[in-house]
Amino acid sequence: MVFCKVNSAGLRGLDGYPVSVEVDVGDGLPGVTMVGVLSSEVKEAQDRVRTALKNSGYHFRPRKVTVNLSPADIRKGGTGFDLPIAVGMLCAHGFLDAEAVRDAVLLGELGLNGELKPIRGILSLVSRAREDGRERCFLPRDNAEEGSAIEGIRVIGVESLGQMAEFMRDPGKAAAWKHGTVSEDEEDPGVYSMDFSQVQGQFLMKRATEVAAAGYHNLLYIGSAGTGKTMIAERIPTIMPSCTPRECLEMSKIYSICGLLPGPGRLLRHRPFRHPHHSVTAAALTGGGRNPVPGEMSLASGGVLFLDEFPEFSKHAIEMLRQPLESRKVILSRVSGRYEFPADFMLVAAMNPCECGYYPDRSRCRCTDEQVRRYLGKISKPILDRIDICVEAAPVSFEELNSKVPQESSASIRKRVESARKIQEERFKGTQISFNSEMREDHINRYCRLKRSDEQFFQTVYQNMNLSARAYGKILKVSRTIADLEGAEQIGHEHLCEAISYRSLEGKYWNS
């Protein structure tokens, strides 16, 4: 046989796509030519494959070998094409029969000794193979447990090129080979090392955090250093509902592509908490690269993106939050195509009110008015409008820190959050949204109706606080969440007043 075709798959953003590895052996100047719009790591595959074949005991007569990775109009990246290229060359030279893997997809990087090494993005690749109707997937043994999370396709872990050849010669061996299974964590997914019971005082911050978690609202803490902003933010995942199996799989796909899964065969079971340093670049925050990969926004999808020292982030990085906060996704347009990554995260930011951290306490703050305006001005009005809740972190007194009164646990708060989430789930059943924070104009008009007296009150507040149309909608959405926490069908005056109070700091700091 001088020509053969082997099935494989490549990554394009977050999704896999089918790739046909075609190998032709013919007359001409001996050597290997690879075509199909290839990245440098794919071009280097010819050297890895030839050496791996030699060290696995296969020797070929000098012939002209052409390898094509189809479709030829999509740039191929990664090292997962090594195994299908090697198998294709063996079939084309007559050592193996390609019919043995006609219904299978092959993935894996080869070491020079023929050993198969794990690759990234297995969940997306195996998922694509299943969608294409493939029955089996041969991949590195270290990836087998992870790939087994995808149901409906048989995943077979392979240790070496020699073992792959054995499976093809004797399909019974592959049928009897026990593939991996997804590891079950001994730890309960609802158990965390941190808990809200460890936080003394700061009732207002805790309340605002509970409201934010219940409605998936964006949240900003503002206050001097050492008041517990980071401490409370780190505990937000502990009061969010546990992940569903589908959420675990979707989040794990992103982490698989980035090589950040907690271990072999282990999927994410806790909601992510991403805490990038303020020196992070805009590209690292949103994702990108020549072969675009997810950034911090996508890694935080389904959980919390915490930006501490918010004004210290670059202006460009902060402004990059605008579109993802509205659309819940990151869209990257490149010459090679359009890439879309999920960005369904809850933004939690923390900041000091000025460089020294004591404004507006003029007995301690030594910053000039210009310095304060310049510092606060790093957070633009459009970004503030996209933050639903802003709460002040007041200094904690010695009595509060030394109090022996037990603080409310995360489990207790989570029960209320879950109850509010169930109300929203029922409310938005059959729609494309799940949380109050995602409501559009038609939803606000339907679910956020106010009493006549409250409408008049809100009109006065709107005019006096010089609110924007977006801020108007945010207040109503937060009011709806507060009512849900109370189990109330109608938004009451107290719910509206509490929601308005979460916007009052904007006037205190940014309009002073």
Entry keywords:
five-stranded parallel beta sheet; alpha/beta; Ribosomal Protein S5, domain 2; Rossmann fold; 512 residues; 2 domains; four-stranded mixed beta sheet
CATH architecture of the largest domain: 3-Layer(aba) Sandwich
Intertermini distance: 80 Å
Gross morphology is: elongated
What is the CATH fold-level name of the largest domain? Rossmann fold
How much of the sequence lies in strands comes to 15-25%
Q: Helix tally?
A: 23
How is the biggest beta sheet arranged? 5 strands, parallel
**Radius of gyration over alpha carbons?**
28 Å
What is the domain tally? 2
Determine the CATH superfamily of the largest domain. Answer: P-loop containing nucleotide triphosphate hydrolases
| Name of the top-level CATH class of the largest domain | Alpha Beta
For the secondary structure, the number of strands is 18
Sheet/helix structural class: alpha/beta
Helix content: 25-40%
Low-confidence stretches: none
Descriptive account of the structure:
The protein has 2 domains: 3-176, 2-Layer Sandwich (Ribosomal Protein S5, domain 2), CATH 3.30.230.10; 196-435, P-loop containing nucleotide triphosphate hydrolases (Rossmann fold, 3-Layer(aba) Sandwich), CATH 3.40.50. 39% of the residues lie in helices and 17% in strands. The protein is elongated and about 85 Å long. Helix 2 (45-55) packs across helix 3 and helix 8 runs parallel beside helix 18. It has 23 helices and 18 strands. Strands 11-14-17-10-18 form a 5-stranded parallel β-sheet, with helices on both faces. It has a 4-stranded mixed β-sheet with strand order 1-2-4-3. By secondary structure, it is of the alpha/beta class. The mean pLDDT is 91.
